[in-house]
Amino acid sequence: MSGSVLNIFPPGSLDSSVVTTVWIGILVLAFFNLRLGWVASGFIVPGYLVPLIILKPWSAGVIVVEGIATYGIVWFFSERFSRSGAWGNFFGRDRFFAILLTSVIVRVFFDGWFLPQLGEYLNETFHLAFDYRNNLHSFGLVIIALIANHFWKPGLFRGAVPFAVTIVITWFIVRFVLMEYTNFTISSIGYMYEDLASNILASPKAYIILLTTAYIASRMNLRYGWEFSGILIPSLLTLLWYSPVRIVTTFIEAIVVTLFAGLILRMPLFGSFTMEGTRRLVFYFTISYAYKFVLACALIRLAPEYKVTDAYGFGYLLPTLLAIKMPEIESYGKTIRATLQTSVIAVAVASVIGFVLTLVPDILPGSMKPDNEHATIALAPDVRLMDRLRNDKLIIYRSRLPGVLVAPLPRDIDIFATAVRTLLEAIETGSNDRRHEAARLLARVGYGMTLVENRYLYLSEVKGSHG
What is the CA radius of gyration of the chain? Predict the structure, then answer.
């Protein structure tokens, strides 16, 4: 098959990027929207899920389940509780904010408690060796909210068929066309997905910023009439204030896409075309993809040491949505000013909220139950500390590879911190009881303690401890 492979994607960028699969998914969804009238919502969902289906099918299933759970909860509160007169039906931006907020709560519940407990229970009950820590968790900052929003208009049962069909067709094109006949590949989740999106428990700051900005953007739209093409645009931009270069690249891409779209639409060939709705989004996103393609080819030749993806705009649809909005407002300055002003206010408010949350005391220090009563301190064989470190060096460096290290649960971090404090206390006081207590706590989170050279306490992760 190697002789028939078309090397059409620039290496180190679009040849293994979710942007490519998202583009395919948008084309598939747009086709069914224009031909069969299927709901044009959640454009990035098919292309985002396909790499996960290929590499981590359990995670893809978790995302869909969490999306359905989010839809069900918001629908219940909107359609059932509103009958009591306590509030009205959720509508427009208020509805999407409710979906976004609920998706975060659902993801915290599933990824932070229910799925780890379920995986641990299944492994212990049925003697399985299922790696639930690496598989039973979701991805994405907003993908769950987008799935829930997709089901809102058609409903869960009527929307299930279009949802499944677009994903299956996108998967088929990616798996049996792109991966078979071009140089496109899906190598690893860590390479293709932003670290920010891979684990909700590792990025609470991102969700504080996201929710704060979404709320402020909805209020700004209601009070001043500021239009952002959805409250997610300033929300996603606010995440970039800690890497301002990405803000610049995002707006540069949006402006370039807007200029080229205007030039193309003024050509006689497109004079009779109506570019609205789904067609317009596909048209602008295709220009955005072409921009990324040309930029990647140029950087590979001119600056091969530069990471190509750092020059792209943030997100998958963010530059496209900004580009679509600019001609409607007839001013690049107004779009940029309103979006940046909202994101600046939001990042300040979110930073204050995050700081206040760090001052909240841990209310669960006594909730840890003393299990692993028989955990002990192992005596290492006649081996020097440096030799032990050399043997473990491969494991230590392997944890730095993309997609290998899974962020621990907050509960595990608390237990580990308590174990280290207990161990330091034992060293200071010389208490063997406290030292064994530290060993029991470490065993709860999958760590062992070994005495090396009769003087060093060596902490290491126990193989297979995470399922």
Answer: 25
Quote the tokens at residue 104. 């975060």
Residue 260 to residue 238: CA distance in whole angstroms: 26
Owner of token pair 């300055």: 333
Any idea what the Cα angle at residue 409 is, between residues 406 and 413, rounded to 5°? Answer: 105
Q: The tokens 């067709």 sit on which residue?
A: 169
DSSP assignment letter at 380: P
List, for residues 389-422, the tens digit of each pLDDT value. Answer: 777 766 665 555 444 455 566 667 778 888 888 8
Asked if residues 25 and 41 have their Cβ atoms less than 8 Å apart, the reply is no
Sign of CA dihedral 389, 392, 394, 399: negative
Q: Which residues pair with 450 in a beta bridge?
A: 378, 458
pLDDT tens digits, one per residue of 20-66: 999 999 999 999 999 999 988 889 999 999 999 998 899 999 999 99
Asked if 98 and 111 count as a contact pair (C-beta separation under 8 A), the reply is no
Rounded to whole angstroms, the Cα distance separating 413 from 457 reads 19
DSSP state string for 219-256: HHHHHH----SSTHHHHHHHGGGGSHHHHHHHHHHHHH
Q: What is the DSSP letter of 84?
A: G
Spatial neighbors of 182 by CB under 8 A, at least 6 apart, are 5, 6, 7, 8, 9
**pTM for this structure?**
0.77
Please tell me the distance from the alpha carbon of residue 95 to that of residue 115, in angstroms, as a whole number.
27
Question: Where would I find the H helices in 266-384?
Answer: 277-302, 318-329, 332-358
Angle between helices 143-150 and 156-173 (to 10 degrees): 130
What is the three-class DSSP state of 331? coil
